[in-house]
Design a protein that fits this description.
alpha+beta; 5-stranded antiparallel beta sheet; 4-stranded antiparallel beta sheet; about 50% helix; flat
């Protein structure tokens, strides 16, 4: 057994891409190893800003050999056919054997496939995986067509076997040939080193100031930052998304704490926190005595000779400049608000463009107000409160602070609304209607915020669809995919059953509205795949042409996923398969559908009557269950068809000599399929 080490060393990989890349490397490489029958004990992947690594522990020396039974011509076939088959498998005719199967007696041969060396297979797999890597964004460099997230600097691909010399596997990507060495920390230990084993590789990296494990870096950053705060009798504000990002920016985290200048402590905490977080990647620290945000934590990527003093001074200097600007513009806004009130600033929205073909921000607010009225009515929320929240939700776009610090939109509006004594629901909606901003962000909690958030996204989507500015390929300049995902997450996580037609039908032509609904359905499918739902379950439930209620579709998908794990599911599938298969075959032959209602007058067996009676009862039961969104009840009712369907096929011949009788029986099969498809398209499901 050997250990495989494969490292892609490159220029800095964006933090958000590192862990998904490591996970893809693990799943794709493992899948390829299994496909090639190359056994292994375990797989581990790691990521840092400069390297993507996979280690295969306990890799076999060669793939497993296997045999494949090849079937040749039928016994009694012309000699030339038998001879040709023997030649195709590389043996004499005397080595063939005969065997009876359902379709008759045939010639067979067991073709032996030998195992292949791990070196040969690893080279093939590594190149294949590297070329098919699904980076969100990638680039080419030099004269080659190979793409990677950032230019590769070196590749290390080694097989280590205890008691034997390491073996380098020759790879070539973009003109870079694999080697037996790698590098330590770019600044503190940039020299090459030649590890003699996978464990030694990890140890040598640590000795050279590189922590390979992403989770270990995260835990170290948080524990060290928390300890520093506690030593200063202060509290570190938890920020998981920032922690995730910072852990992807450093290979050797060094945690330092600095002070915020006293002149800035009077700034609202939100302005301080967002300014430090977005631009400097600082964690915020609150004084236990005063409750003020008074310190920051910065994560450096090296151990400075002066203990970090120069690092802190440089970061403090940059922070001081940003906060000085923030304070200046904040005070300027306060003067404007004191003289004119915050709501008065809405007049400036006429001069702020949302989109040159759609209109100004003032137009945007007026349209969102109309939509929020509909949404508030659907959700039984106070429409007047929602209207006032919408009226103020974009006002801060005209403020000096937001014009200088765009990332503070919503945050600044909340501060100013709160200062003016607006209701809590209103000033929370001004900031929270933007949520969720990121994949890990929470959706709004309060109903007014939810109404404004839905209305804002509906306007964004409908207005861009109306001017035919839709995402295409990887291009999405107006973040419409993010708007759709945000809308979907709010509806799903807050369990809101709203038809999309109730939101958009007044704003778009029918064909454009249908196209937008299909776009949202596709976003829902992708969102749920990322959440771990089965691809075929989604295919069975998401009918793009009739999709209209994201939450209802989610409930159906969720319940089908659970039902698939029960014994009744197999009865349902058995009841579905035979009628569907026969219909599919006959419809292909006849080039038409058999969609008429079956006539009971043409029945001449108890099995036909029993099936029809059962279908009528099940159809009624299914309709009642669907009305209550009790999909499990619907699935159970469909599974109850299994016995009568089985009896029908065992005792009734579909291909009757009488054409009318045959067609009527096909109509009966279609009724089974039609009732089944009223719940889900079960033909999409894979059944083991």
């Amino acid at each position: 057994m050997s250990d495989l080490l494969l490292e892609f060393y490159s220029e800095e990989i964006p933090a958000r891409m590192q862990e998904p890349a490591a996970e893809h490397l693990k799943t794709s490489f493992s899948s390829e190893l299994s496909e090639e029958r190359l056994s292994f004990e375990s797989v581990a992947t790691y990521s840092t800003p400069r390297r993507l690594v996979i280690i295969i522990w306990g890799l076999a020396q060669s793939s497993n050999s296997f045999s494949e039974e090849r079937r040749g011509p039928r016994v009694g076939a012309p000699p030339e056919a038998i001879s040709g088959f023997a030649n195709s498998v590389g043996v004499a005719e005397s080595e063939l054997y005969t065997k009876k199967v359902k379709k008759g007696e045939f010639h067979f041969y067991d073709l032996k496939h030998p195992g292949y060396s791990s070196e040969k297979l690893i080279k093939k797999i590594a190149v294949k995986v590297a070329h098919s890597f699904p980076w969100q964004k990638s680039m080419k460099w030099g004269e080659y067509s190979f793409r990677w997230v950032r230019p590769l600097k070196s590749i290390m691909c080694m097989l280590y076997h205890e008691g034997k010399d390491p073996r380098s596997i020759d790879l070539e990507l973009n003109g870079i040939i694999s080697s037996s060495y790698t590098y330590g920390h770019q600044i503190m230990s940039p020299e090459k080193f030649y590890p003699l084993g996978a464990k030694e590789y990890m140890k040598c990296l640590r000795d050279r100031r590189v922590i390979l494990d992403y989770t270990e870096r995260k835990n170290l950053i948080w524990a060290s930052a928390k300890r520093l705060a506690e030593e200063q009798e202060a509290e570190l504000i938890r920020d998981d998304s920032l922690l995730d990002e910072v852990a992807g920016l450093v290979e050797w985290p060094v945690i330092l704490m600095g002070d915020i200048d006293e002149e800035f402590l009077t700034l609202p905490r939100e302005i301080l926190q967002v300014s430090m977080r977005e631009h400097q990647k600082f964690f915020s620290v609150i004084s236990a005595d005063t409750g003020l945000l008074c310190k920051f934590v910065v994560v450096a990527n090296l151990e400075a000779r002066d203990g970090g003093k120069s690092v802190l001074e440089g970061n403090s200097r940059v922070l001081r400049s940003r906060l000085r600007d923030a304070k200046f513009f904040f005070n300027k806004d306060l003067i404007d608000i004191k003289n004119k009130k915050f709501e008065y600033l809405n007049q400036r929205l006429e001069f702020v463009t949302f989109h040159h073909r759609i209109g100004s921000q003032a137009h945007r607010v007026q349209e969102i107000r109309k939509i929020s009225g509909r949404v508030a009515k659907l959700l039984s929320v106070n429409a007047k409160v929602c209207d006032q929240a919408v009226n103020l939700c974009k006002t801060d776009l005209t403020t000096n602070v937001v014009r200088e610090f765009p990332e503070l939109q919503g945050v600044v509006g909340r501060i100013y609304c709160k200062m003016e004594g607006e209701d809590e629901a209103i000033y929370n909606a001004v900031s929270d209607h933007y949520k969720p901003l990121t994949q890990n962000d929470q959706v709004p909690e309060e109903m007014v915020s939810i109404v404004v958030g839905i209305a804002d996204r509906v306007f964004t989507l409908t207005s861009f669809w109306a001017i035919n500015e839709k995402p295409s390929g990887s291009k999405d300049p107006f973040a419409l995919r993010r708007s759709a995902i945000g809308l979907i997450r709010i509806l799903l996580e807050k369990r809101l059953s709203i038809k999309l037609t109730d939101l958009i039908e007044n704003d778009l032509k029918p064909e454009i509205a249908q196209d937008l609904c299909q776009f949202i359905a596709e976003r829902l499918r992708i969102h749920l795949i990322e959440k771990g739902y089965s691809h075929d379950t989604l295919q069975a439930c998401l009918n793009l042409s009739t999709f209209e209620n994201p939450y209802a579709a989610f409930v159906q998908i969720e319940q089908l996923e659970k039902f698939r794990k029960t014994e009744l599911f197999h009865k349902l599938i058995d009841a579905y398969r035979r009628p569907n298969n026969i219909l599919h075959s006959e419809e292909n032959k006849a080039k038409r559908k058999f969609e008429s209602e079956p006539s009971t007058e043409l029945f001449n067996s108890s099995e036909e009557n029993n099936l029809m009676d059962k279908l009528v009862a099940v159809e009624h039961s299914v309709k009642a269950s669907l009305a209550e969104r009790d999909y499990v009840g619907s699935f159970g009712a469909l599974a109850d068809l299994n016995e009568v369907v089985e009896a029908f096929f065992e005792n009734v011949t579909i291909n009757s000599l009488t054409p009318e009788e045959k067609e009527n029986r096909l109509y009966l099969c279609n009724k089974v399929r039609k009732i089944m498809h009223s719940v889900a398209n079960f033909s999409e499901l894979r059944v083991l």
